[in-house]
Write a structure and sequence with these properties.
By secondary structure, the protein is α/β, with parallel strands linked by helices. The chain has helices at residues 2-7, 23-38, 56-70, 88-106, 118-130, 135-138, 161-170, 187-202, 206-233, 247-252, 255-270, 278-288, 324-333, 344-359; strands spanning 14-18, 42-49, 73-78, 111-113, 144-147, 150-153, 236-238, 242-246, 296-298, 301-306, 309-314. It contains 14 helices and eleven strands.
């Protein structure tokens, strides 16, 4: 735990930790608490009640009582409203991050810690391999990442789940077992139960897979630097709803860079928080190589050519006719657009976003 903060040059004064009551999250908050006492850092525990199981509230309350004994501030965040009948695992994850990140932003907490460990890393590798991910996906769970202005840290990625349970046993701490961890309706659970066979039959251990992810993460870091250079020097962005790059410059890039750049442009403009499936982006990259490309939609965006540039603009579902007076009013408030020649689709997206912000 101590090495983690030194390695990534992190010196937080307050960290929110996700605590479900399971072994990994309890070990996380306890290790952070020990570290925080020696580094002048306050730890706050956040439990999300997804409302998917009758006992979930009791588990969150159990965590609260345990945190109270230790003197750790604790809050329960509740996922309210209707729950989907399919894709529940992904929906729960999105709801969890939405709740905790909102809490962090509202309370000026800049760091959020999760209890992901070595086996989670291995499971993620296999999940993404099944889905056809490239280097970015196969590099696994990042030790440090950014999401909506909050730094997400995962200090336990080098720990096995057995080590974390041994740590809790040594401190006489009882954890909660989530029954969904045994539900083979979830692909992750199927992979988890298959991992021991891979190790026994092929010698492919969880640690070996996690080490592979670490190597791939170095490649991803290089790609990140290349993309950052392109975004800083060659990609123009427009208020989170549009991006552009000179078309012939895009064509001159290596195909791998084309793929990751286009994915990031779509993720930026689409507003969905994630990039489209790799196969769909690769298909679009191939389409863009041809002179007869007439436009496409993907990831909540319209992708088209205009003014010798490749444009990626957020798609407007309920289109309206943009009047000259509406654009003039927008430009009056946003002088940076006064002298720019922009395609109609981008102007429409800019005004639509501005109108939505004003309504909220």
């Amino acid at each position: 735990m101590w090495d983690f903060f030194e390695k990534y040059h992190l010196s937080p004064h307050k960290i929110a930790a996700g605590v479900s009551g399971g072994a990994d999250s309890l070990a996380l908050v306890l290790k952070l608490f020990e570290w925080g006492k020696n580094h002048n850092c306050q730890i706050v525990a956040l439990s999300v009640d997804h409302g998917l199981r009758p006992e979930s509230r009791d588990e969150a309350l159990y965590v609260g009582k345990f945190m109270q004994k230790l003197g750790i501030e604790h809050h329960i965040l509740t996922w309210k409203g209707d729950k989907p009948s399919t894709g529940i695992e992904e929906a729960a994850r999105e709801a969890r991050y939405r709740l905790v990140l909102s809490w962090c932003l509202e309370n000026n907490v800049k760091f959020y810690a999760t209890g992901h460990h070595m086996r989670d890393q291995a499971e993620t590798f296999w999940l993404r391999l099944i889905r056809g991910s490239g280097v970015f996906g196969l590099s696994g769970i990042a030790p440090v990442s950014q999401m909506k202005g909050v730094t997400i840290i995962r200090p336990l990625l080098e720990y096995s789940p057995e080590e974390l349970k041994d740590y809790l046993k040594a401190h006489n701490i009882v954890w909660v077992e989530d029954p969904s961890n045994q539900n083979e309706d979830f692909l992750r659970v199927k992979i988890r139960k298959f991992l021991p066979t891979l190790e026994k039959e092929l010698g492919l251990s969880v640690k070996r897979v996690a080490d592979t992810c670490a190597v791939l993460h170095q490649t991803k870091s290089f790609m990140d630097d290349v993309l950052a250079h392109l975004w800083e020097n060659d990609v123009c962005s427009f208020d989170n709803v549009g991006t552009k790059i000179f078309y012939y410059q895009f064509l001159s890039l290596h195909d791998e860079i084309k793929f990751y750049l286009l994915s990031s442009m779509i993720k930026y403009a689409g507003g969905l928080g994630y990039a489209p499936e790799a196969d769909e982006v690769l298909r679009l990259v191939d389409m863009l190589k041809h002179s007869d490309f007439s436009g496409a939609t993907l990831g909540g965006c319209e992708i088209f050519l205009a003014q010798n540039s490749l444009w990626v603009v957020r798609e407007i579902k309920n289109k309206f006719v943009l009047s000259k007076s509406q654009w003039a009013e927008f430009v009056l408030k946003h002088q940076e657009y006064r002298r720019l020649e922009l395609p109609y689709k981008l102007r429409l997206a800019l005004v639509n976003e501005w109108m939505n912000q004003n309504r909220s």
